[in-house]
Amino acid sequence: MAAVLRRFRTVQVTVIDRPKTSFQQIVCFRSLARSLVRQDSKRWISKLLVRKIEPTKESHSRMLSDKDVIYALHTHNIRPDSIDKYLTNYEQNVNLIHSKKSDLKCELVGSWTVSVGDLDQALHLWQYTGGYERIDFAQILLSKDENYQLLLKERGNYLRSRHLQYLLAFSYWPPLEKRKGPNIYEIRSYSLKPGTMIEWGNNWAKAINFRRNNDEPFAGYFSQIGRLYNVHHIWCYKDLQSRKDTRESAWRLPGWDQCVAYTVPLIREMHCRILSPTTFSPTK
Questions:
Q1: Can you tell me the distance from the alpha carbon of 21 to that of 9, in angstroms, rounded to the nearest whole number?
Q2: How many domains does the chain fold into?
Q3: What is the extent of the structural domain holding 216?
């Protein structure tokens, strides 16, 4: 009888101890899982928070752009029944300004109409060499030009509204090169939270390297006069399918997802437009 009891106790201890060990493992695994979830949550939350930018005595524009070149982005909303007349008028406007190029130090970089997005809209990108002093000079000179003023007055009959921004180019963006067509362009416009432009620039200085495989970067700017805290990235593609393939390939590159994760929280609003070059656009 004693032998039977000893054997029963041994079996009982063995049966009880095994679940005890399994229970300890389960508790350990659950504790580890909770710890990992907390760490992932902290990382995710940290990406949503905008990091503090240290005070600086240097203007943000000087830290992000190192060229004394100003770009003017004209956005014209055209009356739907006057698009052809408007384009004829603006081509004459371009020819007149280019005839005075040596004095104005101003040239058209690109001219497009919107094919997807804000329809019945045209965008014209001008480059001024010599800073705001050159813009002041050009405005004074053109204000005295009778032919220019006649074209300007006529153009008003074809427009619903218009908007002008003066921009600076990001220093990390590839040099602007006019393209041979046919191409389509995409302008992605971002409205950033005030005070985040430096952080945006720091992240995109890395991110742009993931978007050079198909030579798609055309131009990158931030606003200095007009609507502030605006960023415009202009991309060039052969067609919409090429755009899709190029953008998807970027997601397969290690590091691109992290750049996106850090820049998305900086954005208040964004939208994109697909652009088609006009017949007189220097870039096709």
A1: 18
A2: 1
A3: 69-277
Q: Respond yes or no on whether the N-terminal peptide bond of residue 174 is cis (omega within 30° of 0).
A: no
Per residue in 81-124, pLDDT (tens digit) is 999 999 999 999 999 999 999 899 999 999 999 999 999 999 99
Whether the CA torsion 115, 119, 122, 125 is positive or negative: it is: negative
DSSP conformation class of 55 = P
The reply to whether 25 falls in a domain is no
Give the number of other CB atoms < 10 A from CB of residue 215: 13
Query: Tell me, what CATH number does 91's domain have?
Result: 3.30.70.100
**Is residue 183 predicted with pLDDT exceeding 80?**
yes
Q: How far apart are CA 232 and CA 239, in angstroms?
A: 20
Write down the pTM of the prediction: 0.78
Residue 258: inside a domain: yes
Instruction: Examine residue 108 and state whether it is found in any structural domain, yes or no.
Output: yes
pLDDT in tens, 22-79: 545 544 445 545 554 454 444 444 444 444 444 454 555 555 666 689 999 999 999 9
The answer to whether 123 and 89 are in contact (CB under 8 A) is: no
Q: How far is CA 206 from CA 2, 210, 235, in A?
A: 78, 8, 17
